[in-house]
Amino acid sequence: ENPDVRGVADVSILLFCLSAISPEKMVAAAQNAAATLKPGGTLVLRDYGRHDEAQMKLGKSKGKRLGDNFYVKHDGTRCYYFSLEDLERLFGKDEGGAGLDILELKYLRRVYDNKRMDVARRRVWVQGRFQKPFKS
């Protein structure tokens, strides 16, 4: 925790980075990210969603599973695949959460066709927007 970055941001962005953190450290990471926000500030997040095609492939590979929904990729990068409930628990106002209001929380699903190779990739991401409450 760095007191120099507390309450300084109107917007904080987490793009595909929370998934690389060990699940046991995610609560602290979410709280630290929320702490950067000014009252009324917004945290924007996009990361890997549960049942993404990459997760399904990793789940079939030997030695790739590190824990529930947590895997290591071929390049050594670790990757957690989130549900909307995971993000609500991490960033919301429930006990242990970062205390933010949920403005938006959804899955993004896309199919990418490679016609030349005759394959389709089914991708799933999670996207969230959260706001630090104004002080009363």
How many β strands by DSSP?
7
Label the structural class: alpha+beta
Strand order of the largest sheet: 1-2-7-6
Give helix and strand order, one letter per element, not per position.
Answer: EHEHEEEHEE
Strand content: 35-45%
Largest sheet: 4 strands, mixed
Mean pLDDT: 93
Tell me briefly what this model is.
With 136 residues, the chain is of the alpha+beta class. 19% of the residues lie in helices and 40% in strands. The longest helix has 10 residues, at 26-35.
Description:
Helix content is 19%, strand content 40%. The protein has 3 helices and 7 strands. It has helices at 26-35, 53-60, 84-91, and strands spanning 9-15, 37-48, 65-67, 70-72, 78-80, 101-114, 119-131. Strands 1-2-7-6 form a 4-stranded mixed beta sheet.
Key words describing this protein structure:
single chain, 136 residues, alpha+beta, three-stranded antiparallel β-sheet, 3 helices, globular
Record the SSE blueprint.
Elements: E1 9-15, H1 26-35, E2 37-48, H2 53-60, E3 65-67, E4 70-72, E5 78-80, H3 84-91, E6 101-114, E7 119-131
Parallel strand pairs: 1-2
Antiparallel strand pairs: 2-7, 3-4, 4-5, 6-7
